[in-house]
Amino acid sequence: MKILRKLLFWLIVVPVLLVLLLQLYFFLQIGWWVNHNPSSTSFMRHQLSILQEKNPNAQLKHKWIPYNRISNNLKRAIIASEDSNFSEHEGVDWDALQKAYEKNIKKGKVVAGGSTITQQLAKNLFLSGERSYLRKGQEVIITYMLEYWMDKERIFEIYLNVVEWGVGIFGAEAAAQHYYGVSAAQLGAPQAARLAVMLPNPRFYDGHRGTAYLARRTDLILRRMNSAALP
C-alpha cells in the first residue's frame, strides 16, 4: 500500500504541481510585462536557433517602438485581417474556434486555429508553433491571463512589436524597414494592408511577394480597414 501511495504521488501529484507552478510562472511573467517590454519571446528564440544552425552569426531584426509610433493604418489593417472583434471579445472568439474545430474534423488533422490577436500573442510569448489541442488549451489559459492583466491597447502594442513578419523579421518597425524602407509610423494604407495579409504565413510571403492571392487579399483588407475599431 505504501508503494502504491508513492507511485500515485509521483505519477499524479508531482505532475499536477509542476503544471500549476508553470501556470503561476506564466501569470507572474505577464503581470511584469504590464509595465515592462519583453525583449524576446519563445517563438523569437526558437526561430533564432533555427537561423543560427545555418549561420552561427545570424541575428533577428527587431526594434521595439511604442504604440503611438505605429501607423494607425497598420493597426486597422491587422484588426480587419486577423481579428475584427478584437476590441469587443474577452480574448477568445468561441465561434471562430468552433468553425476551426469543424474544419479540422473534416480534414482529419489540425489545419485551422481560429485564434484571436490575444491568442496569437499568447502563443508567441510562451509556446511553440506546434499544432495540437493540448497546446491550444494552454494557449487559451494564457490568453485569459493576458486579458486579466492588460487592457486591449497594451496587448496590441506587444503583439505589434513581437509578431513575425518574415525570415528573422519581428515587429512592425523591422517589417516596415525590411519591406518598404520606412518607419512603422510612416506606413500608408496599401503598405499596411499588404503587411497584415502576410501575417498568417510571413516567411513564405517574404520570398513570394507577388502572388495573386496576396494582391487580392490586400485589396479586400483595404476596403475593410476603415470599419476596424482600434482599442
UniProtKB/TrEMBL annotation:
Gene3D superfamilies found in the cross-reference section: Biosynthetic peptidoglycan transglycosylase-like (1.10.3810.10)
The keyword Flavoprotein belongs to this UniProt entry's keyword annotation: no
Keyword Glycosyltransferase: yes
Location of this chain's protein in the cell: Cell inner membrane
Lineage top rank: taxon: Bacteria
SUPFAM superfamilies: Lysozyme-like (SSF53955)
Known pathway: Cell wall biogenesis; peptidoglycan biosynthesis
One Pfam family of this chain: Transgly
Membrane topology label: Single-pass membrane protein
UniProt keyword terms in alphabetical order: Cell inner membrane, Cell membrane, Cell shape, Cell wall biogenesis/degradation, Glycosyltransferase, Membrane, Peptidoglycan synthesis, Transferase, Transmembrane, Transmembrane helix
EC number: 2.4.99.28
Domain Glycosyl transferase family: 58-225
Reactions this protein catalyses: [GlcNAc-(1->4)-Mur2Ac(oyl-L-Ala-gamma-D-Glu-L-Lys-D-Ala-D-Ala)](n)-di-trans,octa-cis-undecaprenyl diphosphate + beta-D-GlcNAc-(1->4)-Mur2Ac(oyl-L-Ala-gamma-D-Glu-L-Lys-D-Ala-D-Ala)-di-trans,octa-cis-undecaprenyl diphosphate = [GlcNAc-(1->4)-Mur2Ac(oyl-L-Ala-gamma-D-Glu-L-Lys-D-Ala-D-Ala)](n+1)-di-trans,octa-cis-undecaprenyl diphosphate + di-trans,octa-cis-undecaprenyl diphosphate + H(+)
Record field: transmembrane: 7-34
Family named by the database record: Belongs to the glycosyltransferase 51 family.
Function: Peptidoglycan polymerase that catalyzes glycan chain elongation from lipid-linked precursors.
Protein name: Biosynthetic peptidoglycan transglycosylase
Source organism of the structure: Herminiimonas glaciei
Lineage: Bacteria, Pseudomonadati, Pseudomonadota, Betaproteobacteria, Burkholderiales
